[in-house]
Amino acid sequence: MKVYPLMKYKYWFIGVLGAVTIFALSAIFVVGLQLGIDFQGGVRAEIKLTQSTTADRVREAFFSAGVKDPIVQASANNVFVVTAQEMADEQFEGGLANLKDLGAEESAVGLERVGPSFGRDTANRALLAIGISILVMVAYIAWRFDIKFSLPAMASIVHDVGLTLGIYAISGRLVTTATVAATLTILGYSINDTIIVFDRIRENQAYMKNETYSDMADRSIRQVIARSINTPVTTLLPLLAILLFGGETLKDFAFALFIGIAVGTYSSIFVAAPLLVLWKEREPKYRKRLAATKGA
Asked: Rounded CA gap, 202 and 220, in Å?
């Protein structure tokens, strides 16, 4: 079994982590996330057309009717969902009138209004759910393994969620409650991949008495890499099918999951493991092994 010296490049991986962190923070706080009305309040309108058209055409129709910054998402069977901070009944009727040539009519859902306080409460609950999930996972790893395993795992989780939201911001996709559900799912996949790698490293600590921690991590990764790749790939394939052939309402959810699971597979090997190696090699036992290897 050939072992690849991945940890030889651990500082490069940490550099990539820093670059990804800067990208994610810039995308989230500079470009900004497009929050749906579930999080900031507003109005959601659903219309049905008898003829095919584009989301840009529908957006222009409602903008011409006086709706400020309307966001339009296409659904199945020529149904479009229009969201905006404010939309009076007259503006809604005006938007329908502008699309009269396309056979526009109000769907069964019609207008739905969400108050700002309800939106803020939903956003706070979503952040609380994600925060509690991360803390519980980190606490589990600290109990199951070691405190020095938990912090790299937390960095890996934050990396996965941050990069997913950063790409979400850059792509301009709308953040909805489905996005929160996808994020929580990503947390589970991410921590599962990390635990697979960490568990094998911990097992090898008992048998590899003379190797450096980098060598130990490299051998552990080689032993589990097939499982670490095969498991997410079998999940990514159906998600890709949804992205290519699924309905519009499912595509945002599938997009977040696809990015998050792919990133989680990468981070368990190239984020969590290098951070763990950097920390563990500061311990006197492993520092002596490293010094002995360099002196040989």
From this structure: 9
**Which residues, including other chains, have CB under 8 Å from residue 5's CB and lie 6 or more apart?**
214, 218
DSSP 174: E
Q: Which of the residues in the chain have pLDDT under 70? A: 1, 76, 105-110, 115-119, 247-249, 294-296
Residue 78 tokens read as 């020529």
- What's the pLDDT tens digit per position in 225-249? 888 888 888 989 998 988 888 766 6
* Domains with residue ranges and CATH for the chain: 6-36+118-295 (1.20.1640.10), 45-114 (3.30.70)
State pTM to two decimals: 0.79
- Predicted pLDDT at 252: 79
Question: Using CA atoms, how far apart are residues 101 and 108, in angstroms rounded to an integer?
Answer: 20
Place of tokens 């934050």: 158
Measuring CA to CA, how many Å separate 64 from each of 30, 70, 91, 97, 98?
A: 28, 10, 9, 11, 8
